[in-house]
Structure formats: C-alpha cells, structure tokens
Design goal:
Layout lengths: L1 H42 L3 E6 L5 H21 L6 H10 L1 H14 L6 E10 L2 E3 L2 E3 L2 E10 L6 E7 L14 H10 L2 H8 L4 H15 L8
Parallel strand pairs: 1-5
Antiparallel strand pairs: 1-6, 2-5, 3-4
Helix pairs in contact: 2-4
Length: 221
C-alpha cells in the first residue's frame, strides 16, 4: 500500500511539474508576443533624431546642442504637414543634403572644422522620456548625425511626431503630437507610453524594457 501511495504521489508531483513548466512556457511566449506587437507598432509610428558629439568636452557638447536645435527647427519647418512617419522619412530623405549643409555650416559658424556624417537608417535606442511621454528601448528609424569623431555623448529625440524639446525634463508634449501617437497606436499601447500611475502599466513597460535590453527580441530591420 505504501509503495502504491508513493507511486501515486510521484506521478502527481511529475504531472504538477509538467503543468508548471508548460504554464511557464505559455506565459513566456505570451509575453514575447505582447512585447513584439507593442514594440513593432511603436517602431512603425516614430521617426527619431540621434546626434553624437565629437567628444565629451564642454565645448563639443555645447556644439552638439546648437547643431541639434538648428536641425530640429529645419525638420519642423519642412515636415509641418506630414501626417505619418513614412511621409516624415520621405521628406527627410529628400532633404538629406540640406541637413548636412545645416549641420556643417553650424559647426563652421561656431569656429570648428569638424566633418559631419548624416544618414537615415534603423538604429537601436535606449528607453527615453520626453516630457510626459516615455518611449521604450528598441530599434527605430532615425536621422543620425555624427559630428567629427563622434566619440561624445548621444542626444536623442523624436522628430515625428515632434517631441523634441530644448529642455525635455520640464517639457510637456504638445496635444497635437499626442494626438498623432494616439491615432497610430492602440489604446493599450498609448497607455503604456503616456500613463505612469497604474501598477499594471508600469509592469508591462518594465517587461518591454527587460526583453528589449536583454536582446531576447531581435527585431532590427
């Protein structure tokens, strides 16, 4: 009788372990699917700006910000009527030479002779907060500007919808920019990047960050 009881208990333990493992696999696959869907929608809705300074010296960092401001102003002027990311990228590609000229002239006007490299592509970005909007880490289409040796600190922002601020720490994203994001994303996805009070939203955002930062997702184009 004792042997039979041990066998039954052993089978129960084995089945329980199998169920736990299967449940864990299901949860993991569901999490991957969720993060992939959200990340894909965000990446398909946003066009970013990435400026890299020549070095981390105070002078080079200040120059980076001047170049940034001039590029943002120009992009806002030429893409004011863009209705989606694809239109913004098309406009940027048509004016790549102009971005180069603006950056180069800005550098010269400030007393430097650094070269500058301007390219549009798909690059990896860390999690960043713009005013009251937070964008999780991932691969995003962007206009990348490298100044000189490009060994200095990076500066990121979102060119479409326009979320760039001179002082993002105290900036509030304009309602029209939020409206563009809200129209492009599901209500769930928009809540993830704009609402930070809910514990559930915080958990989901952290889940996206975790899976992106550990390279479990490899969605690079």
């Amino acid at each position: 009788m004792k042997t039979l009881l041990n066998i039954i208990c052993s089978k129960k333990v084995k089945y329980s372990l199998i169920l736990i493992i299967l449940l864990g696999i299901y949860i993991f696959i569901s999490a991957i699917s969720y993060v992939t869907a959200v990340s894909s929608d965000l990446e398909n809705s946003i066009f970013r700006l990435h400026v890299i300074a020549n070095s981390d010296s105070e002078e080079d960092q200040n120059l980076k910000y001047i170049v940034r401001d001039n590029l943002i102003k120009y992009m806002n002027d030429i893409s004011a009527n863009a209705e989606n990311k694809e239109e913004a990228i098309k406009i940027a590609k048509e004016h790549t030479d102009d971005f180069y000229k603006i950056a180069k002239q800005t550098i010269i006007n400030n007393g430097y002779d650094y070269d500058v490299n301007v390219e549009i592509g798909n690059f990896t970005f860390p999690t960043k907060t713009y005013g009251d909007i937070s964008i999780p880490a991932g691969y995003y289409d962007a206009l990348r500007v490298k100044i000189g040796e490009a060994n200095g600190q990076n500066w990121w922002c979102v060119m479409f919808p326009p979320l760039c601020f001179v002082n993002v720490s105290s900036g509030i994203v304009p309602d029209e920019s939020k409206k563009v994001l809200e129209d492009e994303l599901s209500s769930e996805e928009y809540s993830l990047i704009s609402e930070r009070d809910s514990n559930e939203i915080k958990f989901k955002f952290k889940l996206i960050e975790l899976l992106q930062n550990t390279n479990i997702l490899t969605a690079k184009k």
